[in-house]
C-alpha cells in the first residue's frame, strides 16, 4: 500500500447545516462497503480524499459526464451510507468525506480507498 496522503482542509466558519446523515455511532461497515462497491462512487470518494481544493465540492468539480439525476443518486447514496457529508448552498450541494468519523469507526478503510487504482477504461 502506498503512503498517499489524505487531504483534509479546515472547516470554514458559518457553514450551512449538513443534510440528514447517520450519526457516527450508527455507521455500519456493510452499508459503507455497499456504497463503495460502485466504481463511480469509489472514484468520487478517492478524488475528494486526494485532490480536494476546497473544504467541500459541488458535483461539477468532479468532471463526471453523467446525467444530473444519476449523479444525485450517487451522491445521496454516499451521504446516506455516512461516507460523505453534504451541505446545501442555495441551489448547490457540496460534499466532503467524513474522514474523522470513518477513521474512528473503520480504521484503515480510507487508506484502502486512496490506495485503489481506478481502471483506465473510465
TrEMBL record:
<dbReference type="InterPro" id="IPR036388">
    <property type="entry name" value="WH-like_DNA-bd_sf"/>
</dbReference>
<feature type="domain" description="HTH arsR-type">
    <location>
        <begin position="31"/>
        <end position="111"/>
    </location>
</feature>
<feature type="region of interest" description="Disordered">
    <location>
        <begin position="1"/>
        <end position="21"/>
    </location>
</feature>
<dbReference type="GO" id="GO:0003700">
    <property type="term" value="F:DNA-binding transcription factor activity"/>
</dbReference>
<protein>
    <submittedName>
        <fullName>Helix-turn-helix domain-containing protein</fullName>
    </submittedName>
</protein>
<dbReference type="InterPro" id="IPR036390">
    <property type="entry name" value="WH_DNA-bd_sf"/>
</dbReference>
<feature type="compositionally biased region" description="Pro residues">
    <location>
        <begin position="10"/>
        <end position="21"/>
    </location>
</feature>
<dbReference type="InterPro" id="IPR001845">
    <property type="entry name" value="HTH_ArsR_DNA-bd_dom"/>
</dbReference>
Amino acid at each position: 500500500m502506498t503512503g498517499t496522503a489524505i487531504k483534509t482542509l479546515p472547516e470554514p466558519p458559518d457553514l450551512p447545516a449538513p443534510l440528514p446523515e447517520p450519526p457516527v455511532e450508527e455507521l455500519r461497515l456493510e452499508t459503507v462497503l455497499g456504497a463503495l462497491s460502485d466504481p463511480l462512487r469509489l472514484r468520487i470518494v478517492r478524488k475528494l480524499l486526494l485532490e480536494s481544493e476546497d473544504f467541500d465540492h459541488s458535483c461539477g468539480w468532479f468532471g463526471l459526464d453523467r446525467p444530473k439525476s444519476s449523479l444525485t443518486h450517487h451522491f445521496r447514496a454516499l451521504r446516506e451510507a455516512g461516507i460523505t457529508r453534504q451541505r446545501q448552498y442555495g441551489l448547490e450541494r457540496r460534499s466532503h468525506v467524513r474522514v474523522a468519523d470513518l477513521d474512528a469507526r473503520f480504521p484503515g478503510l480510507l487508506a484502502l480507498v486512496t490506495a485503489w487504482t481506478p481502471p483506465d477504461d473510465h
